[in-house]
Design goal:
Order of helices and strands: HHEEEEEEEEEEEEEEEEEEEEEEEEEE
Number of helices: 2
Strand content: over 45%
Number of strands: 26
CATH topology: Neuraminidase
Strand order of the largest sheet: 3-2-1-26
Structural class: mainly beta
Distance between the termini: 46 Å
Radius of gyration: 18 Å
Length: 334
């Protein structure tokens, strides 16, 4: 159960970026975002952690059929949290190297065009980027790296949502999103952002004490703040047509499910028809399926499930590795 909560908080995303050996995305949508639905399903970007090799860990790309996995070239150490841009031409991610910088980057899928778009400022760091549907802005978690004189993971201290305008580099923090806020998804019409909220109390020599506050919605100007769900919920991802939000609901028995909810908060429905540890869903651009993380034994693998709940396939991966935080590339129709 402790391992489960570590992943819920994404604490392991920062640490395992260096190898498990060390620690066992109110603007209108543009023409660019219109390409994403309906569209073709491109590659899946994800975070792979190797138990035995920190240098091999990082962001990987794999075909939608699970074949041809390769490590993203020229990425910095400690890279995690990949998110495809609306036009599928770039990937935003954060890097925790050198610790504790937690800078934001963008890069093309061939490894070219890497640029740092935001660095740590004073005591605040940037993690968990998510693109606006017009591709002009990125929402992210802006969190403290120190609390009462001690170093801490940003989203485990005090954090809030912020929006980076890519053309100017301006960062604007959203009001009413303080506490522990992380893992966001921007609605396809650009009017709302869904995010995870929790109250976290660090405990010495132990996993943090967590009070889950569910999923919340807020407008890009920080208004209209409202609660969407009230469970142990995280990892929201908006469907390409904007009609549903997929997310993970964690159970106190150690299991977790994939659920969907209408943005109104109605029609909460369980997607998977089998029991297990399923989390971190990401919609395919055509809306027909989702890729998610399944814990099998001690390790995590990527699998796909149809929008009607049928398990489709699980991807092969090397022994003693964890694959997580998938993001599905949108590609335009011919």
């Amino acid at each position: 159960m402790k391992r489960r909560f570590a992943y819920i908080l994404a604490l392991a995303l920062v640490v395992t970026a260096f190898g498990l050996a060390a620690f066992r995305d109110n603007a209108p949508a543009s023409a660019r975002s219109a390409k994403t639905f309906p569209g073709s399903n491109g590659k899946i970007a994800f975070m792979r952690s190797f138990f035995s090799s920190s240098s091999a860990s990082g962001i990987y790309l794999v075909g939608s059929d699970g074949r041809g996995a390769r490590r993203l070239a020229k990425q910095p150490l400690g890279s995690s949290g990949p998110k495809w841009s609306p036009d599928g031409r770039e990937i935003a991610f954060f890097s925790a190297w050198p610790t504790p910088t937690y800078s934001l980057y963008t890069i093309k899928p061939d490894g070219s065009g890497k640029r740092k778009i935001l660095s740590k400022t004073k005591d605040y760091a940037a993690v968990f980027p998510s693109w606006s549907p017009d591709g002009k802005s990125i929402v992210f978690t802006h969190g403290k790296t120190t609390s009462n004189g001690r170093t801490c993971i940003p989203f485990l201290c005090d954090s809030q949502l912020a929006i980076l305008t890519l053309a100017t580099g301006r960062v604007r923090e959203l009001p009413h999103t303080s506490g522990a806020t992380f893992v966001t998804s921007w609605s396809p019409d650009g009017k709302l952002i869904v995010f995870t909220r929790a109250k976290v109390e660090p405990m010495p020599n132990a996993f943090p004490s967590v009070k889950w506050l569910g999923l919340w919605l807020v407008t890009p100007n920080g208004l209209g703040h409202r609660r969407l769900t009230s469970g142990l919920d995280s990892y929201p991802d908006w469907s390409p047509d904007g009609q549903l939000i997929a997310f993970t609901r964690y159970r106190r028995n150690g299991n977790s499910d994939l659920l969907t909810v209408h943005p109104s908060g109605k029609h909460v429905s369980r997607l998977n028809t089998f029991t297990g540890e399923l989390e971190q869903p990401s919609w395919s651009p055509d809306g027909s399926e989702l890729v998610f993380v399944l814990t099998s034994g001690e390790w995590q693998e990527l699998c796909t499930i149809s929008s009607t709940g049928a398990l489709l396939k699980c991807f092969a991966h090397p022994p003693k590795t964890d694959d997580k935080l998938p993001s599905w590339q949108p590609t335009s129709n011919p």
